[in-house]
Amino acid sequence: MTSLSAVYDLAEKGDVSQLKEYLKTHKDDEDFLTTYVTYQREEDGDTALHAACRIGSTGCARALLRAGHPWNAMNRSGVTAAEVAKASGHQDLWELIVEEGVRVEMIMGLLGRKNEKEKEEGGKVIPNQEYLEQPLTYTEDRLVDADGLGVMLGWEEPLMRRHAEILCPRPGLDVLNVGFGLGLIDEHLQRFKPRTHTIIEAHPDVYRHMLDKGWDKRPGVRILHGRWQDVLPQLAGEDFDGIYFDTYGEYYADMREWHEEVTNLLRPDGIYSFFNGLAATNPVFHEVSCRLAETELRGMGLATTWESMPMDPEEQEEKNWGGLNGRYWTLKEYRLPTCRFDL
Ligand SMILES: C[S@@+](CC[C@H](N)C(=O)[O-])C[C@H]1O[C@@H](n2cnc3c(N)ncnc32)[C@H](O)[C@@H]1O
């Protein structure tokens, strides 16, 4: 083996044929992938894929991905190669890496599902059990958990308003919301006078808050207290015109399971939507997650359209994030999903 940076150097030069040859010759060398293909340059942690993306070498990027270079490798500033491609004006490379991300994550998802099942055999795992057992704090426009993380923040108000408009476009409909939080979407749904308005909420503090605020007496409202996974049998035989999903502390795998339930709960001409906080701290991971969700929903017979809403992270900063221990959102655009059966 030559220098540690050999793969990086060839990618940086955009030398596709030499790079391919090198990758082929050394593919079975010990630690080739972990040490050589994913070598990070000293000064900033860029990998060969970052280098290929900077100079716009689609051939090198393809060869690297085929050799097993991770699509999502970050440099020391937390920037991925796809972001470098976009910033350098190489949209085709952004697209190539995003598509690779979807492909890999679909396979991982299938494997993940299997592992999850295996885990279940040794006992059911509740992903947000710790959260559900913590005390929560309500202030005027924030709901914060015991770790100082924002469960729901008031900056999402315009998003919740828009979701409600789409889900309940006229009075007299039957709507279902999973996850009450600050009750923002439920407040907006009420404005559209649904015939029935079912809310599923798992956290005991949130449930108590709902009762304190008289939500159990609001027109058409029925509260099901418990995790959606546990209370769903109470909805056996029912279906809805509009369904919204926005929980906390759960994984994408849980949402996937929920989507399977949606196909039974949604009326043929109904509308489903969810809070699109999918990997919302990185634009590439977000893009991959959106496409993954869209692909999986399509596989369940639901077609998704996305409405773009501009976001101002600085305005949010002033409004809501102060004093919290982390952010679940850093993007400049919200992509609101609307899903309908396309059968
Ligand atoms: C982000 S907040 C929802 C915010 C809401 N969309 C609004 O407009 O204010 C998430 C809520 O989901 C609840 N939750 C978390 N896991 C849940 C589960 N498995 N089933 C039902 N509710 C859950 C949390 O307790 C929290 O109240």
Automatic annotation (TrEMBL):
Keywords: ANK repeat, Cytoplasm, Methyltransferase, Nucleus, S-adenosyl-L-methionine, Transferase
Compartments in which it is found: Cytoplasm; Nucleus
Example GO biological process: methylation
Stretches that traverse the bilayer: none
CDD domains named in the record: AdoMet_MTases
GO molecular function: protein arginine N5-methyltransferase activity
EC number of this enzyme: 2.1.1.-
Coiled-coil region(s): none
GO annotations of cellular component type: cytoplasm; nucleus
A Pfam family recorded for this sequence: Ank_2
Enzyme class, spelled out: transferase
Main subcellular location of this protein, as a coarse class: cytoplasm
The keyword Chaperone belongs to this UniProt entry's keyword annotation: no
Ranges of the ANK repeats in the UniProt entry: 44-76
Annotated RMT2 domain residues: 124-343
Function: S-adenosyl-L-methionine-dependent protein-arginine N-methyltransferase that methylates the delta-nitrogen atom of arginine residues to form N5-methylarginine (type IV) in target proteins. Monomethylates ribosomal protein L12.
Record text on subunit structure and interactions: Monomer.
Protein's name according to its UniProt entry: Arginine N-methyltransferase 2
Upper taxonomic lineage: Eukaryota, Fungi, Fungi incertae sedis, Zoopagomycota, Zoopagomycotina
